[in-house]
Design goal:
By secondary structure, the protein is α+β, with helices and mostly antiparallel strands. The chain has helices spanning 33-48, 67-74, 107-115; strands spanning 5-6, 12-18, 30-31, 53-55, 82-92, 95-102, 121-131, 135-147. It has one domain (5-146).
């Protein structure tokens, strides 16, 4: 289970991914550290201006929704579904770490879930080029969303 570490300033820090082309995650996907570093640098421009907002849950493709419409929905943040402000994203020791502060419409719900120790994690929402069916080269990070972690 992902651990949200509470910082003195009220933010929560989470290890989102372990990076490496030879280090598959639980889904068998590997994340290229160099591509991630470039995407993080670009994403942090939005963090610095306070425009990195995450949702509660991640977009799911609706029945009958076209691939184009679903891709568009994944590229934006639904302001009616916001739950956090992303305050930092960085790579340390081949780990992608993001920090967030509960905010937005679902702020109280996220705060309560964290207090109640409901299993949560931050999921990265990004557009990637995939090599060999498993190595993800992240091009653009849309945001990080508060989600339920997968269960084994």
């Amino acid at each position: 289970m992902t651990e949200f570490t509470r910082k003195e300033d009220g933010t929560f820090e989470v290890v989102v991914k372990v990076l490496g082309v030879d280090r598959p995650d639980r889904n068998g996907l590997c994340w290229n550290p160099e591509a991630m570093a470039k995407a993080i640098e670009k994403f942090n421009e939005r963090v610095r201006t306070g425009r990195a907002i995450g949702e509660l849950g991640q977009p799911a493709r609706r029945a009958g929704e076209s691939a184009e419409d679903y891709r568009y929905r994944c590229s934006i943040v639904d302001m009616d579904n916001t739950c956090c402000l992303i305050t930092d994203a960085k790579i340390e020791d081949n780990k992608l770490i993001a920090a967030m502060k509960p905010a937005g419409r679902w702020k109280g719900s996220v705060e309560q879930m964290l207090e109640d120790q409901v299993p949560l994690t931050l999921g990265i929402r990004a557009f990637c080029d995939v090599r060999d069916g498993k190595i993800h080269n992240v091009r653009d990070i849309v945001t990080f969303d508060v989600i339920s972690p997968p269960t084994d």
